[in-house]
Amino acid sequence: MSLKAVLFDMDGVIVDTEPLHRKAYFKTFNELEIIVSENLYTSFTGSSTKKVCETLINEFDLSHSHEDIAHIKRTYFKDFFYNDEEFDLIPGVKQLIEHYHENDMKLILASSATMTTINMVFEKFGLEKYFSGKISGADLKESKPHPEVFLLAAKMANEPVENCMVIEDSTNGILAAHRAQIFCSAYRSQHSKNQDYTLANIVVSDYAELELDKITKYF
Question: Which region is the signal sequence (predicted)?
């Protein structure tokens, strides 16, 4: 057993899209004339847009389709994505990605975000050349905390799960990695409030702690 592949979540791990999603969702809630509590909103962290929209429809007995709600939210999100001056990569993540790439790690993106959003992020920040694969949970039957996205990512890397590591920041993502039986490093993001790191193998708040000389002892 040795580390060969790193499976990255995106939201809250590579980019701070969480604040953009929050702004876009709350604009959407206003447009739908619903009041979503902080507890309910926090429970959405790490879930696909489709799953969130379906929850809203059931919770508030909405007549909209999940496609309609997703379209409203996406429109607000794109506006914030291109115009919010605070939007940037998480500090230290580009250096970590380059470090893994230079040391021949296979990098796979395994996110609940739509492929459209993933491609927007990769294009904006020049990440395409470092990753050998990308998976959008929005295209899958099951959403995190189901392990499907990480099991597929390991398969895409052509590595057994014991040779993989997941980097996650949400309760749902950490649980998905745990269920996939993949070593999970939790990143304690300032934007991921009230997340449960109990099932993570290690928890870090600085990406320098995930460089290979620090983590190979676990594999």
Answer: none
Note the pLDDT tens digit of each residue in 32-47: 999 999 999 999 877 8
**Beta carbons within 10 angstroms of residue 107's beta carbon:** 19
Tokens of 194: 């009230």
**CB 130 within 8 Å of CB 82:** no
Structural domain including 112 reads 5-16+88-218
Domain match, 118 and 204 both: yes
Whether residues 56 and 137 fall in one domain: no
Read off the pLDDT of residues 131-177 as tens digits, 9 standing for 90 and up. Answer: 999 999 989 989 899 999 999 999 999 999 999 999 999 999 999 99
- The answer to whether the CB of 18 falls within 8 A of the CB of 192 is yes
- CA-to-CA distance for 215 and 150, rounded, in angstroms? 20
Q: 112, 48 in Cβ contact below 8 A? A: yes
Rg (CA), the chain: 17
CATH number (domain holding residue 42): 1.10.150
Determine contact, residues 132/144, Cβ cutoff 8 Å: no
